[in-house]
Amino acid sequence: MRNYQVKPESKLNLLHFDADDTGDYKKTDKSKEKAKAVTEKLIGRLGELQERLYANGNRALLIVLQGMDTSGKDGTIKHVMSGVNPQGCKVVSFKTPSPEELDHDFLWRVHQKAPAKGQIGIFNRSHYEDVLITRVHGLISDKVVKQRFNQIKEFEELLSESGIVILKFFLHISKDEQKKRLEERISNPEKRWKFNEADLEERKLWKNYLNAFEAMMAATSTDRAPWYIVPANHKWYRNLVIADRIVNALEDMKLKTPSAPAGINFDKLKIE
Questions:
Q1: Of the four listed, 5, 17, 66, 128, which is most buried by Cβ atoms within 10 Å?
Q2: CB burial of residue 3 (10 Å; 0-12, 13-18, 19+)
Q3: What is the pLDDT of residues 156-184, one digit of tens each?
């Protein structure tokens, strides 16, 4: 499995990353089904490891999902996390800040939603919106952007030192793939509820967003909180890559099933 990890302080050009990449799998129905079968096994393993994470209650996992509109953030959550126990997993989406949130620093609302020990937290969009949309639309200066990059790195270092493992995924789709997905939302009555006219205006700023994502990942990918550029034109491959990374991160925690309560002879215990 290819890694796709962004090295710290690397120079990025997303045009050099193939959103249509499928790694070692060919773009055939046979390879697609093979990849899906591997993904299902990973999802099963993810469920087992999440139970240990929850039972131990001394570590946590934070998954950050970012990407262009229609890149598949919702679909990733639906499929990759389909085997986890909901009581040990929480999804948070950060919308336009409320008046109360605007009265605080930009990370105030985010820190409150960081996963507790024993939990998996998923940010469907995240604190990075405050160096993306705000930058593309000229709401903050380049100086403030750089300050926020440093503040984000310090914030994520704090989370890491508190026992939270951080994985950040940029779901990379091509402009042509986004066009196809937007057209599907328009033509399919079952998907029209997802359509937002604002997406068409944001699409006009595609290059600006690419530049913002490149700068963001180059500045904030660290050993403790790495970014991964995930090829996401093919949903089945996107799910495989992300499931593999999550399982590897949980395996690296060396989670063990907690010991049974002391003083109980389970071999002789009988329930009347």
A1: 128
A2: exposed
A3: 999 999 999 999 999 999 999 999 999 99
